[in-house]
Amino acid sequence: MRTIDLIKASFKQPTLLLEGRNKKGFHVFLYLLLLAIVLSLPVIYQATLITRTIQDDGEKIIQKLPDFSIEDNTLVTKEKTDGFIYQTDSIIFTFDPTDKRTKKEIESDATSNVLVVGLLKKEIIMILPRIGTTTDIMDNNVLSIPYSMYQANGLNKQVLEQLLTSNSSQSMWFSVIFFVTWFMVFFNLFVDIVILAFFANLFTKFRLIGFRYKDVFKIIVYAATLPSILTAILQFIWPAISFGSVGVALTLLIYFNALPKRIKK
């Protein structure tokens, strides 16, 4: 059965989802990647809103920013400064070379539709917009990049100015948010489906249905189609909703309804 037919079956005839067990593993993996993109759409939408203003915000941030560099994996300013916080509806930027604010305090700045960036004494903190599916993993979307990393070791005011104010800054920040979000969502979705398939496989054995674990896994992936689309739509309205709270139960329900009373391998 073609993938498009399996997608239609998830809406109209769930019993046909059983044919998903005959799909090649590579095709199932690609479809899982597609579901991750669907679940990423609410965050991508927020990223679009944020990146529209990133250049204007960046120019204001650079005006306040003192000259600095990274020495011995530590942020150092040429003149003594206490740092500052720049805040708008789309971004909260913290420059704190003396570590007056803790990582937890910066994390508390995060809201559902704001990008948080912090340059601390020993590391860079970035927190993506908080949407349900992305908050199931990775410390509430917190990315911590120590200055000891090669990518951050050459950071200074001129480099940051290029990142924030160049004509390509919007597309660059959008790409960063998109790919990081997509990876987080994909990993979280994969773990959810592995666990779902495990319990669904146990249930299937109790029903004396001769499916192997990999058959159940494939069926669960296609059974997650409708829940993934529904979760993404709901997240535009209620960002706190995640696939874990909506999609898991609905995916299992669809899978159980698709099962026959008994079937051989």
From TrEMBL:
The chain crosses the membrane at residues 28-45, 172-204, 216-234, 240-259. The keyword Transmembrane applies. The keyword Transmembrane applies. It comes from the Bacteria. It holds the Pfam family DUF1189. Keywords: Membrane, Transmembrane, Transmembrane helix. This is DUF1189 domain-containing protein.
